[in-house]
Amino acid sequence: MQGENWRRHSDSDWEDEADRTPPVSPSRGSHWRNLVGFWLLGLCNNFAYVIMLSAAHDILQKQETNGTTLKDLGGKDWLMKATTMSPEAGNTSNSSRYDCNPVSTAAILLADILPTLLIKFTAPFYIHLLPYHFRVTLCILTAAASFLIVSFSTGIVMSLSGVVFASVSSGLGEVTFLSLTSFFHSDVVSWWSSGTGGAGIFGALSYLGLTWAGLSPRNTLLIMLIIPILLLVSYFCLLFHPPSLPKWRRPRTVQGRGAAKPDRRPLMGGATSRTDKQASILTLQEKWNVVKWVLKYMIPLALVYFAEYFINQGLFELLYFKNTILTHAEQYRWYQMLYQAGVFVSRSSVRCLPVRRIWILAFLQFVNMFFLLAAVYYLFLPSIYVVMAIIVYEGLLGGAGYVNTFHNISQESSDEHREFAMSAACVADTLGISLSGVVAIPVHGYFCGLL
């Protein structure tokens, strides 16, 4: 029996003593450990990303207060104007009717998303060469580095580099953990999605709450170092790892039979979990066929995220109401928190309200985008509370688009294609976000009189 166990590995794999013991079927308690583990993985993976977007206004304001310029970034003259701002005051460096930073918060968005986009575009074709333990360790280290670099930043280039580390952690983590779901019961997909929604609401709320309580943005970011530690515990201690999970092992030549591909056993039964059949290695043609099939979900999801992040990073800072007790920075933080609250609710509701036609969500999100764009231009909204209600609704649409896309792919893809399909599809939201950042920067410049 033990001989059969290790002979399942091909001669290109690596073997250790642990593989010679028969796999143990997990108990129901282990199943719940996995569900909770994936919820925490979703929470931790997206936390740094959310924190950087919530802190975007403060990051830019901090650099402007210090007189930092963007000359070393090759920016235009209007990008180089440093301003002096207090948290309670508006930006007096521009003559527009909006309270503007010289640089749009979309700049933070691009630094937070472009590395993720690069990773997601390329990872499905090489990521399988790296074992999951190594990938997760890299996610932990880059997340910790992001908080430390932004906390102690003395210039905008250093701040943006810290945001880039957060992006690397989030992008690599999303590709890794969505692929990892193919080794577990299909229920972990909805728990992962709920966790990513939890990262939004808890990340934005914790940043809002700690800064409201009087902590500086720097100290708030340093407190967030607990998140990489929680990520480490969730993956290495809480999850019940299947024996078939790829690892780096000592090379061994298989004798007496042809090389076989490693099997991937489901931890619990289920219609969409891995079977005991040997997993095939997909050819480039098979991967292309999977990508073509999954485009029916990727395109609508990309449109959903384009519209909502154009709102979040292009319009939020322009939707400023002077007749409230909230400063501009506080209004921006509240917008981010309310958006993430909507995302959390909808990402946790796939079993209650499944949606198969993602294009409907994309259409409704574009209606939101054009309505708020008109509100910024004509300034016809009478109250900040109207904006807050629309933002919650926007978050509900965005979260529903994400969780239903991956739930549908998990349910409809075949066993041998599911791991690749999940990792390939996760590029859609990132692509939409990236394009929204590119469009939002000139729109910000237009409204603020900088173009």
Structural summary, described in words:
The protein is globular and about 60 Å long. Helix 5 runs antiparallel to helix 6 (156-180) and helix 10 runs parallel beside helix 12. It is mainly α and 451 residues long. It is built from 15 helices and two strands. Strands 1-2 form a two-stranded antiparallel ribbon. The protein is 63% helix and 1% strand.
How much is the average pLDDT? 77
Quaternary status of these chains? single chain
- Which band does the percent of strand residues land in? under 5%
Global Rg? 23 Å
Helices, by number, come to: 15
Beta strands, count: 2
Q: What profile does the largest beta sheet have?
A: 2 strands, antiparallel
As residue ranges, the low-confidence spans are 1-25, 68-95, 249-279
Spatial order of strands in the largest sheet: 1-2
Span between termini: 72 Å
Alpha-beta classification:
mainly alpha
Q: What general outline do the C-alpha atoms trace?
A: globular
SSE sequence, one letter per element: HEHHHHHHHHEHHHHHH
Q: Could you estimate the helical fraction of the residues in percent?
A: 55-70%
Summarize the entry for a quick read.
The N and C termini lie far apart (72 Å). The model is unreliable at 1-25, 68-95 and 249-279 (pLDDT under 50).
Which terms would index this structure?
mainly alpha, two-stranded antiparallel sheet, single chain, 451 residues
SSE inventory with pairings:
Layout: H1 2-7, E1 14-15, H2 28-54, H3 56-65, H4 106-122, H5 132-151, H6 156-180, H7 187-212, H8 217-223, H9 226-238, E2 250-251, H10 284-315, H11 328-347, H12 358-378, H13 384-412, H14 415-425, H15 427-447
Helix pairs in contact: 2-3, 2-6, 2-7, 2-9, 4-6, 4-15, 5-6, 5-8, 5-9, 6-14, 7-11, 7-13, 10-12, 10-13, 10-14, 10-15, 11-13, 12-13
